[in-house]
Every structure is written in structure tokens, then in C-alpha cells.
Model the fold of this input.
Amino acid sequence: MSLAPQDFLPAIAPWVGTLDDVWPGAAVKPYFAHWEVAHLLSMIMLGGASILLNLRLIGFGLSEQSPSEVRRDVLPWLNVGVIGILITGLLIGASNPDRLYTSEAFTAKMLGLAAALILTYGVSLPLARADGRAGAAVRVTALIGFVFWALSLYVFGVSKLVNPGLWHVVTAAALIVLFVTRGLTRIVYAAGMAALIAIQFVTTHFVIKPDDFTRLDPANKVFFAIFAAWILGAAAVQLISAGRGQHGGAFTKATAYAAILVWVTTAAAGRWIAFA
Done:
């Protein structure tokens, strides 16, 4: 089953086909690369702001400041970054509509973007403003954001030629957990990751030949599941061992993890549009 926009919005196909022939698509097309650079810079800006904010909610990063103080400092940059990706994304899309209309990665990106906006503006920022205290409205909003993120990951994962992009999300999660864990947990986690990477390399380069896709693809999917389970397990240990700190408990920290990774999901899906 295909999950590209053309599959559930077939009626708009004629309109999509004209977007790059009229303004603003026609005006943007000759300068596509310039707008793409602006899109990436906006993504870097909001990504940095989101990382600083959510790491503080997890309990690391700018520890000399309270979450509400970090929120105050990063909010302008976060807003500029989000506005930048929305404007440049619309212009880039208008200049290259057919590729987006037929791309399952674009569906994953739009679902991820919805989840990212919900989790950032409806969860992370209110949590930071309240210094980690979560009310009922924030919890309900988080649930909605998680549903959209789950749908994005589902589309990403089942789409042919796109699903390898989920390794970007797993890699980002692995690095975040490595950064926030401490002591023996970090040592065990890092050793386990190193062992898994070595086993995967040997398996997919020597036990299974690199061109034997019939066996290679299922093997990599198994390794993906093992990596994800190891990372989630280490994150759970970190959440439990950290307990309820001055600025929130497990819910606050877990949603902060998600609020970083959902932007990684969105960015990764966007990069994989070109490969589908």
C-alpha cells in the first residue's frame, strides 16, 4: 500500500501539476538551491534551540539556569527557526510539487512536522514555563503529539526506499542517551552499543555478502529493532534512576526526549524525499 499524498488526495493532481508554472513556484525554481540553504539554516536554528530546551528538561545542559530561564532565552530563536522552515518549505514545495505529491517520505515529514509543532509548542514550552510541572492539558496534548509521531514513524518505516532513513532517528536517540547517562549506566550502555555495531558490521559485510539483499534487508531490520530496544532500555534506566527532580519527573523527561527526536524524524524524512 502506497502512502504518498497522490494516493489519498487524487483530486488535487491537476492543481499540483500547475504549481511550478505560476507564482511563487515559477519564481523560486531558478533559485531552488538558495531556498534549500535557507531551509537547512532554519532547521539548524530551531534544532539547536529545541535541543537546549529539552536537554534542560531532561536534567542536563544549561544546569545553571532553570527551564523557564532557558525557555525565555531560546524562544525567539525557536520561533524564527520554525517560521523559516515553514516559509522556505512552502516555497520549495511550490517549485517542485510533483516530487512531493508522489513521495511517501513527504507524508512522513508532514505528520512528523505536525507532531513536532504539537510537542514543542503544546508540551515542551509549557513544561519549561512551569519549570517541569505537567498539568492535565499538557498530558493530553502530549498524547496527541505522540499519536502523530507514531503515524509518521509508521509511514517512514513501511515505505520502500525510505525506511533506511529511520537509522538517522535511532542514531540521534543513541547519542542523546549517551550524553545524558552517567556512571556505570553510561559505561554499560556504550559497551553494549559498541558490541552491537561490531556484530552488525561483521554480519552484514562477511557473514552476509553486501549484495545479498534477500538476506541483508531482514538482518538489518532485526539489528534496527535490537538497537532501538537497547537505547530505549538505557533511556528507561536513566529516567528511573533520575527519579523526580526539582524540575519534573519521568513524564517531563520522556516528552523532552521525544520533542528532540520528532524534529530529527521530520528532518530525516525531508532528506529522504530525494531518494524515493
